[in-house]
Predict the structure.
Amino acid sequence: MQQEYQRYYVPAQSPWPFVGAVALFLIAVGAANTVIENSNGEDGFGTRVLGLGIITLLVMLFGWFKNQIDESMSGLYSDQLGRSYRQGMSWFIFSEVMFFGAFFGALFYARMISVPWLGGASNNAMTNEVLWPGFEAMWPLISTPGGTTTEQMGAMGLPTINTIILLISSVTLHFAHVGLEQGKRKQLTLMLGITILLGIGFLSLQVEEYIHAYHELGLTLQSGVYGNTFFMLTGFHGMHVTLGTIMLIVLFLRVLKGHFTAHNHFAFQAGSWYWHFVDVVWVMLFMFVYVL
């Protein structure tokens, strides 16, 4: 008996991967030059290139999303393609786990190996005297050999509020998903809208936190390994929250147009996976960067 196979849709060539690569290149160049210019008290080329890169990335995201939505609503997708999307999203999130794993690894290496080593641990007293006489192994490292001293970013205040915000956003997104599966469109729309507002609130408070760190605590990218790891982890997480919020906004617009059903809503499910992943990363970040 001949087995029947579903048709597997293969899209035409798309310009969006190339546009996305250009956007990421502009962001990388712009961000690097912005940091250098800020260190030298300048403002110009880097900021403009960074802004152009961000705009290009947003154009790419919405353009690519539109193509995907049009293909899906045209009935071009099959169950086999749906399984491919699930596998692709799973591997993407796994790659993000490895991405943050490398950053957390850098934090642990600096905190658990480098700092004790510089402090003379494991019979390295000579290293301590040669590289940093009088250095005391402690974390966070708020004093550098060059004489730069900063203050620690405490867990209370904005970091705790942001943690609560993200935890609540996971709950509201879960109830939005439940509303979708049960056909409760009002619950879906309300809970998804609240989740988006919570994401925007998180980003706004993080900007306020950075301003506080720079102007009141003296905590900058020039603040040694503590400042570097702090901004590296929180900054990249904030970038992921931004991307997740954009995804949720696209899903919200689709919900308003009547898209998704209880049995056909993988795009919504993928956005939920990503948002919950970002929330889990923040909980770990909050514990290891702010609390411990």
Notes: Residues 39 and 192 are 40 Å apart (CA to CA). The helical segments are 16-39, 45-73, 79-118, 125-131, 158-181, 185-217, 224-256, 266-291.
